[in-house]
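Quiz preparation item.
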């Protein structure tokens, strides 16, 4: 009965995790297809929105906002609902749909920052248990709305999810305020002491952190992981709809497949806790890269005509990428501890490390949809010309095989020299 024995502060963070995951999974999985297929946003407007989001991420205020989170909860849910309700009936290429996407992306990203700050690096097991519940939001959205075929049903489910998320976030913050009235460095993106530093000192600290080989290796590896994850989150439905005939894989089965891509990673992390203790996160993450590369090669040789294998492949890759990404807070925590010992800082600059990590990896969230859509458009994606459909399908199949393979190779090469590998037990902090 692990849930009943959770420490109060762990319960608070778990409720915040539940609220954020419920909204974040649905938003990232559906918004690209929503704007491309339902709102028929122009290619230029889509690229402009992603570029604005990239700039917004870089300029976004990274200071702690703990006291504002209670006010941020309803704003976060409202930002989540923004994409699903059109501001008018959009014509193809309507400029207003482009503005709608810009506002939706920037609003959701800004409010998400409130709650990402509330994660503790040590709460891996509880975080995954709660994330398992939150990940079912994608499954329910798909089943109830027939994978976006019934817009009104999708909007209704989105409203219910938003209400549940607000309740979860308020519950988490209520418990946090009672059991943790003061903040530690891990709970802000920039702690109070770091906020008081002059700009020159902040730049000096950033330069000092960026000179660490392990941290630079992690940044590169994490950038490609975020790119990989965004790639599958944003386009998995589009790839499956185009490459797998509906008579082979009915809508309900597709919904289960999409849901499994978000539910199974949490289960995988939970059931591999003993492996994590035995082998450590370094080997587990490295093995995941080899598995991704191997699966990509096998699928590439099989070919796109094996529809059931293709569906299984898409699900397995998404599960592996999501599951390994769940472990990335562990090397971050170890690097914070290593820097604390190396430079004899009075307190760990975890907020500075997290801020730099976000600054360098967030652009991947915009680059992935821009690059993939650009490639698909080269082969006639979105055009009514049926003569290009075979070329488009070949391009999609090559993307879902070669992108994971290329990223896996890069990550293996980058992650192999990472030298902080000593800690293996990360589940005892509960």
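Solution:
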């Amino acid at each position: 009965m692990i849930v009943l024995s959770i420490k109060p502060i762990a319960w608070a963070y778990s409720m915040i995790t539940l609220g954020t995951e419920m909204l974040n999974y649905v938003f990232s999985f559906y918004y690209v297809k929503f704007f491309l297929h339902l709102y028929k946003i122009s290619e230029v407007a889509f690229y402009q929105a992603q570029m604005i989001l990239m700039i917004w991420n870089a300029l976004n205020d990274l200071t702690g906002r703990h006291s504002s989170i209670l006010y941020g909860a309803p704003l976060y849910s409202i930002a989540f609902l923004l994409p699903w309700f059109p501001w008018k009936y959009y014509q193809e290429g309507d400029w207003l749909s482009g503005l709608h996407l810009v506002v939706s992306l920037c609003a959701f990203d800004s409010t998400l920052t409130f709650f990402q700050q509330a994660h503790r690096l040590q709460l891996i097991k509880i975080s995954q248990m709660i994330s398992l519940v939150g990940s079912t939001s994608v499954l329910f959205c798909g089943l109830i709305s027939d994978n976006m075929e019934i817009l009104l049903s999708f909007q209704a489910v989105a409203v219910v999810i938003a209400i549940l998320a607000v309740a979860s976030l308020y519950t988490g913050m209520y418990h946090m305020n009672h059991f943790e009235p003061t903040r530690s460095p891990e709970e802000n993106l920039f702690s109070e002491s770091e906020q008081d530093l002059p700009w020159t000192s902040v730049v000096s600290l950033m330069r000092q952190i960026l000179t660490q080989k392990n941290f630079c290796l992690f940044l590169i590896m994490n950038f490609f992981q975020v790119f990989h994850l965004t790639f599958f989150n944003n386009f998995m439905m589009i790839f499956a709809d185009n490459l797998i005939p509906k008579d082979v894989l009915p809508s309900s089965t597709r919904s289960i497949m999409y849901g499994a891509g978000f539910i199974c990673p949490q289960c995988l992390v939970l059931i591999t806790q003993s492996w994590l203790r035995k082998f450590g996160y370094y080997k587990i993450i490295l093995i995941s890269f080899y598995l991704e590369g191997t699966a990509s090669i096998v699928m590439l040789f099989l070919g796109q005509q094996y529809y059931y294998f293709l569906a299984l492949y898409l699900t397995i890759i998404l599960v592996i990428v999501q599951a390994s990404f769940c472990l990335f807070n562990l090397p971050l925590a170890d690097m914070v501890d290593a820097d604390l010992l190396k430079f004899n800082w009075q307190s760990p600059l975890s907020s500075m490390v997290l801020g730099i990590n976000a600054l360098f990896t967030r652009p991947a969230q915009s680059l992935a949809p821009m690059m993939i859509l650009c490639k698909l458009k080269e082969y006639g994606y979105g055009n009514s010309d049926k003569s290009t459909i075979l070329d488009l399908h070949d391009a999609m199949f090559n993307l879902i095989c070669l992108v994971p393979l290329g990223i896996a190779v890069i990550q293996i090469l980058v992650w192999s020299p990472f030298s902080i590998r000593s800690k293996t037990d990360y589940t005892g902090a509960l």
